[in-house]
Amino acid sequence: MTRDCRCGGVLGQYSVTYTKTSLFALKGSSVDLPCSYTYPSGYTVGTTVWHNWKYRQYNYEIQHRSEYSGRVEYRGNKINDCTLRIRNLRESDSGEYRFRYETFSHDTWSYIWRPASGGVTLSVIDLKVWLTPTMVTEGSQVNLTCRTISPLSDNPTYIWYKNKQYLQYNSSSWYISSVNCEDAGSYSCAVKGHEDLHSPEVTLTVRYKPKNISVAVSPSGEIVEGSSVTLTCSSDANPAVQKYTWFKKTVASTKAYGQIYSITNISSEDSE
């Protein structure tokens, strides 16, 4: 440790201690940089300042930087606590942070104290979901992986969401061996303890053949000979059905094309 002093004093009684020298936090969350400090008896603490050690010198006071405006809060005191809180974290906040403080005594003698080396290193993590592949045919395999730019500490538990609704707890990787149409949707992940911070969504598209095919008759009920009837065919498919063909069981040839088939001046021969 070294000092920047304006008068004599007891160097050994000055110190800054960082409870954690390495911290990981999620982008968008808040983090506390825990810190404590000491100084000689009979002195009073004046200015307290945190620096981002970006330029390797004590001129980057984050309280006065526009990029930190409204996001930093000194949670410490003028006694021994120098904890700093940073909110709404950005990836650009990653880096080393150092604390310094000024003391003075009753006879106006003063010190500005700052450690010669070391601080607390903050790594801001951005969660992302990798989906391979993003478009599959029903029955295929899919791999989803929740990744971070830097590793999180303490082996975190990952939480998976589908269409913003909780899905399940899982590891960082999730394997679906046989995809069905119900698996289609937008997936995101979060880390336990930060459930309000989701990764950007990634959409899984599942292609499948037509199913649940049905025909609606309008008007319904008994049909009077000579009136008109409209038949509408519907189905569930991805991609959506573009071509419909109409047949009559007792007739080999095609009756019509298109999702809607209209019969005018209906007769008994149209019965089936």
Task: Explain what the structure shows.
This protein is mostly beta strands and 272 residues long. Helices cover 0% and strands 50% of the residues. It has no helices and 23 strands. The strands form six sheets. Strands 13, 15, 16, 18, 19, 20 and 23 form a seven-stranded mixed β-sheet that branches. Strand 9 and strand 10 (110-114) form a beta hairpin. The protein starts with a strand and ends in a 9-residue tail after the last strand.
Question: How are the elements arranged and paired?
Answer:
Layout (H helix, E strand, L loop, with lengths): L1 E4 L9 E4 L3 E5 L4 E3 L1 E4 L5 E9 L19 E3 L9 E3 L8 E10 L5 E5 L5 E6 L1 E6 L2 E3 L4 E7 L9 E5 L2 E6 L2 E4 L8 E7 L10 E17 L10 E10 L6 E4 L2 E7 L2 E4 L9
What is shown here, in short?
The chain is mainly beta and 272 residues long. The protein folds into 3 domains: 123 residues, Immunoglobulins (Immunoglobulin-like, Sandwich); 82 residues, Immunoglobulin-like; 62 residues.
